[in-house]
Structures are given as C-alpha cells and as structure tokens.
Design goal:
CATH architecture of the largest domain: 2-Layer Sandwich
Order of helices and strands: EEEEEHEEHEEEEEHHEHEEHEEH
Number of helices: 7
Largest sheet: 5 strands, antiparallel
Strand content: 25-35%
Shape: elongated
CATH topology of the largest domain: Threonyl-tRNA Synthetase, Chain A, domain 2
Number of domains: 3
Structural class: alpha+beta
Helix content: 25-40%
Number of strands: 17
C-alpha cells in the first residue's frame, strides 16, 4: 500500500530519498515502511498496511539507520569543506549506500594530499564545532557564499559548520562535529576530470577497522608472521611462489623433451594421457613433436576438473574430427585441418575409446 501526504506542511517523520541519501524507513503502527520518496510535491510512503485516510497512526523511524546516515552525511560536509577550502575542488557527486559513501570531486588529489585532508577533517571532528541547520532570511550573508550543486529557488536550508563548510542541504546531520567520531578514506580512483572517494564515517569506520584487523590477524597466523610485518611476509611468499614456478617450468621443459623423444620412437599414431599438465605446456609439446615427427598425435591432460586436448595430423582432417568430437562430448575448442585444441568434462576412458574407434574402425 502507498500512503500519500499531499500537503508539504504536513511533515513526515521519515526522511524521503534525496540529496544523495537513501530513505531510512521505520514503522507506521506495526507495519514496516520500506521506502519513502517525494515526487511532484507529494510524499509517498511504501508500507504493507490497511491504514485509511483520516486514521491516526503511530510513526517510528529506524533511528539506527537515521543516526548512521547523520554520521555519514555530516562527515561528507566536513571532508568536502576542508578539500574546497584547501584546493577549491567542489563536491560534484555524492551517495550514501548501505555499505559505504561515495563522494566525487572536481579535481584530483594525490595520496599524500588525501592523507593530509583526512587528518584535517578529523581535526575538525575533535574541535567539537556546533553545526547550524536553518532557513536564513534573504538578507543573511551566508546566502551569498555557500556550496550547492544546482540552481535553488524558494526557502533554502543551510547546513553551516562555522569556518569549515556552509552548504545548501536537505539531509540529516549531527548537532556537532564530534558526533561523527572519525572519517576514513577507504579508497580513491580517478573519475572524469577529478577523483572519486569511498569514505566511511563513525560506526561504519570502526566496523571496517575491526573487520580489517580480524582479517590481518588471520593472515598473520596463516603465514606465521607478526601482523605488523604482513607486507614483508606476503612478499616473501610471492618470491617463493615465483621461484617454484620457475623450477616447475624448468622441470616441465625437461619432461617435454623426454616425452617427445620417447613418442618419436612409437607407431605412426600416438594417444598420450598426462595428469596436471596445463594447456600451454600441452601446446608446446605438440609443437615440438610436429617439428620432430609427422605422426598423428592425440594428447590429453586432466587438470582442475577439466580435460585439455590437442589433436594434430598431416594425414587426417582434424577440423572435421574436432566437430564430431565436440558434438559427442560437448567440448569447447577450435583450430584448423592440421591441428585443434580445446577442453571438456568427460571420463578419459570414454574419450580414448572414442579416439580408437575413429582411428581403427
């Protein structure tokens, strides 16, 4: 059911979606309000309810979500204020989501500049500056110099953090900067001609820190290193992995050489099955065998739950054979009349039986 408030003076207790901020929801009587929007001067409440026009109802907002949005939105004002005061970059996009807050600015900031702006924003929080939210009259000097993204008409609501930020805004905010708790820039990326920041404030920042600390503790235990030495510990593991990869490559090349020499001694046609040899190594083996011999080759390797294959021949049409193979086994692959490759999920015995039947029937 959609409940409407058509007179803007009959104010709703629930914040409607707008100004980069989601609706917070709550309850009308015992029924949950799942969305609140304002369109063409009408406030719409989405609620599963049988409330009738003229009924008196009890409204209860979702204060946990309201308070969270107040922390995020006030944090955005503080951060946007210090960035504009220092660099002249304006907030050109803003959204509070369920997991994070996105803020876009008109200019780019380096990592060092972001660290400095984050520190300055948190300094503002610690100063416990009072936040004024009101509708000033037309003679108020604040109306001559305030932040806004679009042309405004009628009464203008100003959110004023003295000496930091003065902005036209319809959102929900704290009464003082100290209530934000903390501002943390989690990530940044180039966006259009400026920068996009992902920011967490207050309780969200604390939850994020606790999550990251939990993850760091778990990883430090896995690799047996101090949490403060995680970077060097991970780099050491990467170096060890790279060394193992190089050794694996060397051994694989020796194996390929050995197998190729052995296969050149066999009959005109060879069916070869390997375990855990990747498709790249298979292709290398097939290429080397074609250089050493003109025999027909049917090479398979089972790895990661799939069977990779290469068919190669100078006497048979491998492309035609591969089409039949793909149709019977739902394989994925391609090639030309002399050589084809691909992969499939199938029992290797069934595959070998199919090849033998094609070759010798």
């Amino acid at each position: 059911m959609i409940l409407e408030i058509t007179d803007r003076q009959k104010r709703t207790a629930f914040y409607p979606e707008g100004g980069g901020q989601e609706a917070e929801g709550g309850f009308i009587n015992e029924f949950e309000v799942t969305d609140v929007i304002i369109k063409d001067e009408i406030i719409y409440h989405k609620v599963e309810s049988d409330v009738k026009p003229g009924d008196t109802v009890h409204c209860k907002i979702n204060f946990e979500k309201r308070y969270d949005h107040m922390q995020q939105h006030t944090g955005e004002h503080i951060l946007s204020g210090v960035i504009e005061n220092k660099f002249g970059y304006t907030n050109v996009g803003f959204h509070i989501g369920s997991e994070g807050m996105r803020v876009d600015y008109s200019g780019y900031l380096t990592d060092d500049e972001l660290i400095a702006m984050e520190k300055e924003a948190n300094d503002v929080i610690r100063k416990n500056i009072e936040i004024y939210q009101d509708y000033p009259d037309k003679n108020d000097t604040r109306l001559k110099d305030f932040r806004f993204k679009k042309e405004l008409h009628g009464d203008i609501r100003i959110v004023d953090i003295r000496g930091v930020d003065c902005c036209a805004c319809c959102g929900t905010h704290m009464k003082s900067t100290s209530e934000v708790g903390i501002i943390k820039i989690v990530s940044s990326s180039k966006y259009k001609n400026g920068i996009r920041l992902n920011v967490l404030c207050g309780d969200r920042a604390l939850k994020y820190y606790n999550y990251m600390l939990h993850q760091s503790d778990n990883i430090s235990q896995m690799i047996s290193t101090n949490v403060l030495d995680l970077e060097s510990g991970v780099r050491k593991l990467i170096d060890q992995k790279n060394e193992l990869e190089r050794e694996k490559k060397r051994v694989m090349e020796e194996l390929i050489d050995y197998k190729c020499k052995e296969l050149t001694k066999t009959n005109k046609r060879s069916i070869v099955v390997f375990e855990n040899i990747d498709s790249k190594s298979l292709k290398k083996m097939a290429s080397k065998l074609r250089e050493m011999s003109d025999k027909d080759l049917f090479i398979f390797s089972e790895t990661s739950g799939r069977t990779h294959y290469i068919f190669s021949s100078n006497t048979m049409d491998m492309k035609k054979m591969n089409e039949d193979f793909k149709e019977d086994f739902d394989a994925k692959g391609g090639g030309n009349s002399k050589s084809v490759s691909g992969s499939l999920r199938a029992n290797k015995e069934d595959v070998i039986h199919w090849i033998n039947k094609k070759l010798f029937d």
